[in-house]
Amino acid sequence: MSRRQLLLLSSSRVYGYKYLELAAEFIQQLLASNDVRQVLFIPYALKDHDKYLEIVKEPLERWGWEVVGIHQFKDPVAAAEKAEAFFIGGGNTFRLLKTLYDLNLIEVIRRRVLEDGIPYIGSSAGTNVATRSIHTTNDMPIVYPPSFEALNLIPFNINPHYVDKDPTSKHMGETREERILQYQELPEAGPVLGLREACVLCIDGDKVTLKGKNASRLFIPGKTPKEITPNSDLSYLLQKT
Q: What does the sequence similarity comment in the record state about its family (predicted)?
């Protein structure tokens, strides 16, 4: 079995950077080291697939990689079977996951990544669906996927765009931390990594490393949440609980 290779971004757009620019080094290294020539982009988290594809093409083709959209193929499963690398972008996680189920793409993507070692890049919603489930997405359930279970490329959950409580705010609603802790009251819940903006999770085989500009916040059921600084080793999260 080949090793899994994933880059999971909190967001493609980071303040002060162009689209995907903050993760450019990691993306280029991943694609170049696997001799990737063409990236298969999966735009199902947004409605306008063609427009989304053009946004993604600009940086990746400038860096030297051809990009094609899976929606351009009559048979998306066959396209996924032949893909050299996957990139799933952000948008609405429920719409994205439902479409992956509707088009029978869950199993083929999982197998290609976990068994064939095909590189996977996810951002925001694309990061959510790479995990065990979408229970910790921030998105509204605008459609109904048949299950919250996702690609399960990693055995823990992520909360992209994680934000901390603003002590100067008069908003009295629940914080992101409170919502994650509520999820972890469920007996089946496992670890959740609150991935702040400008963070990238790099997964190479059984090695998990936090990269980027900011710390992230790790929630493990029954334990006090803790800060995870860049370059920290999180490989222990791959141990299924």
A: Belongs to the peptidase S51 family.
Q: 157-160 and 38-42: which strand pairing?
A: unpaired
- Degrees to nearest 5, angle at CA 63 with 3 and 6: 20
DSSP label at 160?
Answer: E
Q: How many CB atoms lie within 10 A of CB 116?
A: 12
Tell me how far apart the alpha carbons of residues 165 and 48 are, in angstroms, rounded to a whole number.
34
Query: Distance between CA 137 and CA 217 in Å, rounded?
Result: 15
Active site residues per annotation: 124, 139, 161
* Contact predicate 196/163, CB 8 Å: yes
pLDDT digits (tens, 9 = 90+) for 123-169: 999 999 999 999 999 999 999 999 999 999 999 999 999 998 777 77
Please, what are the domains in the chain? 5-238 (3.40.50.880)
Cα atoms in the 13 Å half-sphere on the side-chain side of 42: 32
**Angle (CA) 111 13 3, round 5°:** 25
